[in-house]
Amino acid sequence: MASVLLQLLFLIALGSPALLTALADDTSFPVNVWPKPVSMSWAEPHTAVPVSPSFSIVVPPGNPYLASAAARYTRLLLTERYRPIVRPAVNVTAGGAGALLEKLAVTVTDPEVPLQHGVDESYALVVPAASAGGAGAATLTAATAWGAMRGLETYSQLAWRHGRGNLIVVAAGVRVEDRPLYPHRGLMLDTGRNYIPVADILRTIDAMGANKMNVFHWHITDSQSFPIELPSAPELAEKGAYGEDMRYTVEDVSRIVEFAMRRGVRVVPEIDSPGHTASWTGAYPEAVTCAGKFWLPNASDWNSRLAAEPGAGQLNPLSPKTYEVIANVVNDLTTLFPDDFYHAGADEVTPGCWLTDPSIKAYLDGGRGGTLSQLLERYVRAVHPLVTSKNRTAVFWEDVLLDATVNVSAAAIPPATTVLQTWNNGPNNTKLIVAAGYRAIVSSASFYYLDCGHGDFLGNDSGYDNPNSDFKEEGGSWCGPYKTWQRVYDYDIAYGLTADEARLVLGGEVALWTEQVDAAVLDGRVWPRASAMAEALWSGNRDAAGRKRYAEATDRLFDWRHRMVGRGVRAEPIQPLWCRTRPGMCNLVQ
């Protein structure tokens, strides 16, 4: 109950209307919307109205992205073949002359507001009940084009194919008032471990927009590969990518950013450094320490490691070349990506790697008495101003402040221009970050890491060779077990925070690291578990009484997964089909 009270205090502080954002209506309808809206009513008896073959979405001028969305949703409405698994108990109005829904009229207060962090995504949707005068037009009102896009998605989910024919109907007598609980609802995708083709990235972003997620955090590079072509440093991709056909060109990046904008999704780039940079070695060997060395010299001593996983190499903060290269990288990335966030990484800086370098050893052992933390701070104090000079907010992984061995002082990363992304120790590290005055993005591995529980990828691991035990019962990976959709859904990212601290939580991101992921399995690893986070951060995970609503969400998520599959997303199932057709029979408790 304390968590519920916290959400209430948080919303009071934000001035959220009717406090409905956190405690959304727990009513389920014959046809539902995912994520569940903050407020939705459907007049009884439930009815639906046929959609005219000439149906159109009319939007105001001034925003080409909204115009594109209107055209896309018009096509979707008229061509989608979605049929609910359980036939809706709805009265369908006869589709005679004058009784068809002809259009959706969209009104936007300011269509020119740019897509940026904190933009207003609220909307109100009304689909009128059919009357003797006909159904007429549905109406959608929003403050911005981005809120209107969220409303268009809601409208699309109120439509389905009825009967044995191809009649398209839309729920009628429906009113929706909706807005997100958190402004940052994202997916982090790693393309450095395994290359993900552009087409698969686009399909993922399209599904994000359908789930009302608004941030694609693109972890582009890592120790294993550097797949993005940068005009100022072309050698990085030439010598660091897996191959010529596994690179992202400037044109690819532009295509991805524009595609995302048309779905109200921001693209936040990350070039991780100074750790995770072995892939920079081919282009700039003088800037990288411990490159080419085996990552774990002594398998029985974790402290001997040169990297967190295979692929040892870190930028040398004492090398002038390091700063020449990172300046070019930041300049190119902030030119290619217009978003006001720039993710600079800085996670898992490994002491062992730096300690192999003679210049660094001299720095540490010399009369100056330098430390590894001072070495990292030297680097961060150079990178942070580069980022902010481009009118960007610098985002770092939590390690830069919280790592027990190598960290920087708060003076190097001023809270006013810095956001920290948490991934360790669940709510404890979130608490440490916001208590220090930083804004936080939550990606707690115990809840939001989608790669966990699939076993480890290391070779010649004898630990598995024991027929008398189930090695590593937690799924054979450091962050196991597998994070089920229920685990994702139930996480309260502001757990244990005061109201003032909760205001600093921008939202969260599910994360997919790709050591064991490529395009062949991408969709199933992400969906529908990312959908679970999408709803929890849009309208909360509790009902009007303050109870976790995962039980009520099960059938709705089943249906939403079914619709996503019909839209071309290879989302994994959450239950046997038998369960959906027999309500309650697959529950744990009767």
UniProtKB/TrEMBL annotation:
Transmembrane segments: none
Active site location: E348
SUPFAM superfamilies: (Trans)glycosidases (SSF51445), beta-N-acetylhexosaminidase-like domain (SSF55545)
Signal peptide bounds: 1-24
Catalysis performed (reactions): Hydrolysis of terminal non-reducing N-acetyl-D-hexosamine residues in N-acetyl-beta-D-hexosaminides
Pfam families from the UniProt entry: Glyco_hydro_20, Glycohydro_20b2
Entry EC no(s): 3.2.1.52
Domain Beta-hexosaminidase eukaryotic type N-terminal residues, every copy: 33-158
GO cellular component: membrane
BP terms from Gene Ontology: carbohydrate metabolic process; glycosaminoglycan metabolic process
Domain (Glycoside hydrolase family 20 catalytic) ranges: 182-540
EC class of the enzyme, as a word: hydrolase
Keywords: Glycoprotein, Glycosidase, Hydrolase, Signal
InterPro entries with a match to the protein in the record: Beta_hexosaminidase_sua/sub (IPR025705), GH (IPR017853), Glyco_hydro_20_cat (IPR015883), Hex-like_dom2 (IPR029018), HEX_eukaryotic_N (IPR029019)
Molecular functions per Gene Ontology: beta-N-acetylhexosaminidase activity
Matching PANTHER family: BETA-HEXOSAMINIDASE (PTHR22600:SF53)
Family, per entry: Belongs to the glycosyl hydrolase 20 family.
Official protein name in the record: beta-N-acetylhexosaminidase
Organism of provenance: Eragrostis curvula (weeping love grass)
Source taxonomy: Eukaryota, Viridiplantae, Streptophyta, Embryophyta, Tracheophyta
